[in-house]
Amino acid sequence: MKILAVCGMGFGSSMVLKMSIESVLKSAGIKADVRTADIGIAKSETADVIVTSSEFSKLLQNKNIPVVVVKNYVDKKEIGEKLLPIVQGEKKGS
Amino acid sequence: MDILVAVLQFIVNEILSKPALLVGIIALVGLLFMRRSAGDVVSGTLKTILGFLIMSAGADLLSGTLTPLGAMVQAGFHLHGVVPTNEAIVGLAQKAFGTQTAAIMALGFVVNILLARFTPAKFVFLTGHHLLFMATLLAVVLGSAGITGVNQIILGALLLGTAATVLPALVHPFTQKVTEGAGFALGHFNTVGYIISSLIGKGVGKVMKDKSRSTEEIEVPEQLSFLRDSLVMTTMTVIVIYLILAIIAGPAAIASQAGGSNYLMYAFTQALTFGASVAIILMGVRMILAEIVPAFQGIAERIVPNALPALDCPTTFTFAPNAVVFGFISSLVGGIVGLFLMGPLGLALIIPGMVPHFFDGGTAGVYGNATGGRFGAILGAFINGLLITFLPALLLAFMGSLGLSNTTFGDADFALVGILSGLGSRTGVIGLYVIVIVALVVLVGLASLITIRGKRKAEEAEEAVVENA
């Protein structure tokens, strides 16, 4: 399973997001390859799930990949609630 | 004995003074410290080294595209033209100061961790690229002032560690207002701009009261969302700037470089190459940070209990996305107003860089909005725009030969720290040690006071969400 954390530059806030996602997945016992990306890379890369802010999600709607919108990048509760159902659904589907 | 000396010499000359390898070693230590698997350690270390080499390759490509810019501004305005772009100046500076930069970055983070561990200011700076940029700035300014070697590294690390601890602490009362106590701090070296914007917002809020409502009550058109693609934005502005400058300067100014091709098309392709080289540098930076930032975070978590992570500015954007657009536009207007004042004041022509205005101006807008609504956002970000035009111009004098390279650091804290440490260096090495240590004690004391006061306030407010404060 591959997850992209997306922000404007692809190494600032997306790095924060990536570390939060990894920690959430680790405590849920899910293995995943979480990478950071800027919007250009996110458009050209394939992934199973994209996690980003609401502003960037608008630019990524036309990809057939579920987009999880997060407000607080360090809030593991918020990330868990939004991401885990999708991740678990993807796993069953594939 | 001779063998020992030879081994030491080999380590210093062949490994530690090769910045790519030094950065690799820093990543290696971090990965080992986090007890990652052997495969992760090998691939992480290699990727960091490759990232550094990619960054250098991007900088080589970039420097060629800056030459026509300088020539065109010189011919058109008889001024020194500068586009502040952190990635560009940092890439260029690694040739002369790569080793010192890597050492200052690693040791500066250690200073940050120690200060966070042993003082009430528990801020751990996790915005890796800004640590890298500030380390570069300090290496350049101190090195250009004749402070070299071990002293350059120690003084640089002390200054970096102090800035990384103190600046997030000083702006934290406002950060909490922005994020409604979300449990993180702001780690972005344009803090002076954000504090000023917050204070202006506070003033606006007092004068206008509820006439200045929040930016988030306004609909912002969807079409503006392309602004968030920073590579597209940088390239588009550089194209516009290069074409305007080429028209003003005329074909003669860049004829020798264009080598027979049409001067406008030459300027156009150089602008595109500028965008491409920034993309390469960014890719290199991304590869370096992907390994180093998690390592830093892992180290911080083990050593500093209750550490408050200081994070990159877009983490605040989600709390007021409209204020980002307001802030960007009015910061840019401030930059353009500033541009016209540079010539008469006899300063270098600072051409507004889109990336600093977007991220710094956007954040200034978020902070100004939090304290003073939409007019706070507009006025605060406008002043931020002036600030990140004038400060980089004043910084150039302290950057030695790199001050002439047509690009420079774009954010307020880099410029301010650079100017102050450049001035401090004039007192000599010992004088600078005294100044740096006094500044460290005073500033960390101030940061601790603000932190303790903030905590007390949070405890008093019964409904406040106290999670990490």
TrEMBL record, chain A:
PROSITE patterns named among the record's database cross-references:
PTS_EIIB_TYPE_2
Q: Which UniProt keywords apply?
A: Transferase
Q: Which GO terms describe its biological process?
A: phosphoenolpyruvate-dependent sugar phosphotransferase system
Q: Which InterPro entries match?
A: PTS_EIIB-like_sf, PTS_EIIB_2, PTS_EIIB_2/3
**Pfam families given for it?**
PTS_IIB (PF02302)
Q: Where is the PTS EIIB type-2 domain?
A: 1-91
Q: Does the keyword Cell membrane apply?
A: no
| Protein name listed in UniProt | PTS system ascorbate-specific IIB component
Q: Which organism is it from?
A: Thermosporothrix hazakensis
From TrEMBL, chain B:
Please name one Pfam family that this protein belongs to. Answer: EIIC-GAT
Record's protein name = Ascorbate-specific PTS system EIIC component
Q: For this UniProt entry, what is the primary localization, expressed as one broad class?
A: membrane
Q: Fill in the subunit field for this protein.
A: Homodimer.
Write out the transmembrane intervals. Answer: 20-38, 50-77, 97-116, 123-147, 153-171, 183-201, 231-254, 266-289, 324-355, 375-399, 430-452
Example GO biological process: phosphoenolpyruvate-dependent sugar phosphotransferase system
Highest taxon listed in the record's lineage: Bacteria
**Summary of the function given for this chain in its UniProt record:** The phosphoenolpyruvate-dependent sugar phosphotransferase system (sugar PTS), a major carbohydrate active transport system, catalyzes the phosphorylation of incoming sugar substrates concomitantly with their translocation across the cell membrane. The enzyme II UlaABC PTS system is involved in ascorbate transport.
Q: Which InterPro entries match?
A: Ascorbate-PTS_EIIC (IPR051562), PTS_sugar-sp_permease (IPR004703)
Similarity-based family:
Belongs to the UlaA family.
GO cellular component terms, A-Z: plasma membrane
Q: Where in the cell is it found?
A: Cell membrane
Query: Keyword Transport on this protein?
Result: yes
Alphabetically sorted, this entry's keywords are: Cell membrane, Membrane, Phosphotransferase system, Sugar transport, Transmembrane, Transmembrane helix, Transport
Coiled coil feature spans: none
Membrane topology annotation: Multi-pass membrane protein
